[in-house]
Amino acid sequence: MSWGWESAWPAPAKLNLFLHVVGRRADGYHLLQTVFRFIDLSDELRFSPREDGRIVLATPVPGVAEEDNLVVRAARALQQVGAGPTARGVTIHLEKRIPAGGGLGGGSSDAATTLIALNHLWGLGLSREALQRIGLSLGADVPVFVHGRNCFAEGVGERFTDLALPEAWYLVTRPLVQVPTAEIFRAPELKRDTPAMRPQDWRPGLGRNDLEAVAQARYPEIARHLEALRAVGEARMTGSGACCFVAFANEAAARAAAAALPPELAALVVAGLAAHPLVALT
Length: 282
What we know:
Elements: E1 9-24, E2 30-50, E3 55-57, H1 70-81, E4 89-95, H2 106-121, H3 128-138, H4 142-147, E5 151-155, E6 159-162, E7 169-173, H5 181-186, H6 212-218, H7 220-229, E8 236-237, E9 244-248, H8 251-260, E10 268-271
Helix pairs in contact: 1-2, 2-3, 6-7
């Protein structure tokens, strides 16, 4: 596919198939191990060139100041790498489909797609590694979306071992709460000493989400969703919450399980992706 100005640029969601906290650095950052899986649920961005050097988000996100929006911050970071803040501008239209505050990585994915798209559209020629470094300055989950491949991630989420994951479908529910990631990581009861594993030793179904116990104790709605999902499969929370999921080998099984859930859970059935749709551009 040819990607250009006015194209619809996808920003897919992710699931953490497991998430272990294996330690903590002296600067307070947590050391993690996780597997990132991209899924077929995506925000969409469109970019229009400007001659005045301004970065304009035409579709503000309610409750998020423009200067705090990761899309705007990503575009401004690339501006500084290019010919300077007055040389290039862009108007960005963002269509949100990924729930905010759900642990699906929507904001990070939007930022990564902005980096990938504007690197291409502005002809900057930056490498994937350079874009990942810029992404890490914006947020811990941004680099994996630039990386573009399902992977086992380590460190603060910036060291990747690519994985060829089997085809899978996921039943995803969204508890109607927004979980502040920082709150979960600050919790004194959070387990921070799970033994590290080697990437080559991980298999689908192995591991757990160390953040899950803290999140469901503080947000009973998450516990309710997990309990309902456990009636149809092995349920887990993704990221720091609030979304929860169960994996299935095929679409029919996922849809049958969705039909068995209470209708108020408003479950989504989505396919796992083999890679990020923009991986060829990085």
